[in-house]
Amino acid sequence: MHTVVERELELKLVLSPERSIPVPARLTYRADDPYAVHVTFHIGSETPVNWTFARELLVEGVFRPCGDGDVRIWPTRVEGRSVILMALSSPDGDALLEAPSAQVSAWLERTLRVVPPGSETEQLGIDDGLAELLAPTVGRGRADELWLRDPWPGDESRPEEGA
Fold first, then answer.
1. Mean pLDDT within 32-44
2. How far apart are CA 14 and CA 79, in angstroms?
3. Measuring CA to CA, which of 21, 73, 74, 84 is 20 to 30 A from 63?
4. Are 50 and 35 in contact, with CB atoms under 8 Å apart?
């Protein structure tokens, strides 16, 4: 069973320096997908808008500007409040979202306790899977013999008899 860390919060969609609208959102982190964070925006449409990007990007973005391309994150202050800005770009358009720094940081801290940085590959079980694949099996059967046989015999042409 894998741990899930979620946090509901209200972000602000920045329309202009003077105007923004609230956007309910959910931050989700799953230990079985240890490199990613998932953000679901509930924008009043039939289906929510989902974004997935690297947890490391969000962790770094809490402290300094980072990212390029589709996701850029940076900390700043707005009207005396510490916030994190997320600029998201897609073929459907661009959005600038403002998130409360303290809430995002507290949620990130919980994800880092669940899966500490550098231990993500352990969560994926890659080492265990490789060990199982590479382990010798006892008493190989007919299927194993076929599997181990060269499926593409050499292309050396043999002269035809009687030619």
1. 90
2. 14
3. 21
4. no
Extract the tokens encoding 122.
Answer: 């352990």
Closest by CA to 86, choosing from 51, 45, 35, 133, is 51
**pLDDT per position as a tens digit, 53-82:** 999 999 999 999 999 889 999 999 998 999
How far apart (Å, rounded) are the C-alpha atoms in residues 41 and 13? 10
pLDDT tens digits for range 94-127: 999 999 999 999 999 999 999 888 767 766 655 5
Tokens found for residue 150: 């060269």
Distance CA 128, CA 100 (A): 39
Q: How many CA atoms lie within 13 A of 58 on its CB side?
A: 26
